[in-house]
Design goal:
The chain is 24% helix and 29% strand. The protein is built from 2 helices and 6 strands, in the order βββαβαββ. The protein has helices at residues 52-69, 89-103, and strands at 5-8, 22-25, 30-37, 77-85, 110-115, 125-133. α2 links the parallel β4 (77-85) and β5 (110-115). The chain is globular and about 45 Å long.
């Protein structure tokens, strides 16, 4: 069974970006659209107020759980959007480094945004993802 996800590197664009510039999904594959993962613990409390890196760790743990429930893994992700509620570039970088490291060698295309506010009290980080998985036997 081959992987339906192919990350596209673009030699004509800067290699500074720590992600592929595009991804393709070969049929037949099932797409998984994950809601924005938030830095909430099992009781619904926002973890690590004021710490974007710690919140990003909780976000990525929660994203892995959500993907697994849908039969996907981080290695199946074809696109992410990372939201950081901050005007400080250092906060965006701190969150991004955690997200990037969680993916290891798999570097799906990603968009990193600084935003004004997110949905929960003290929330600084949210990550949404799209994954593609090949159904067994296909």
């Amino acid at each position: 069974m081959s992987d339906p996800v192919a990350l596209v590197r673009v030699s004509e664009l800067s290699d500074v970006a720590e992600y592929a510039y595009a991804a393709t999904v070969d049929p037949p594959a099932r797409l998984v659209f994950a809601a924005g993962a938030c830095p909430l613990d099992a009781d619904g409390r926002t973890v690590a107020p004021g710490d974007p890196a710690a919140q990003a760790r909780q976000v990525m743990a929660n994203l892995e759980v959500a993907l697994a429930a849908a039969g996907a893994r981080l290695a199946d992700v074809v696109k992410t959007t990372v939201y950081v509620a901050s005007t400080r570039q250092a906060d965006l970088v701190a969150a991004w480094e955690v997200v990037r490291d969680a993916f290891g060698d798999h570097e799906p295309p990603s968009t990193l945004l600084g935003v004004t506010v997110l949905g929960y009290d003290d929330q600084l980080v949210e990550v949404e993802a799209v994954a593609a998985v090949r159904e067994p036997g296909r």
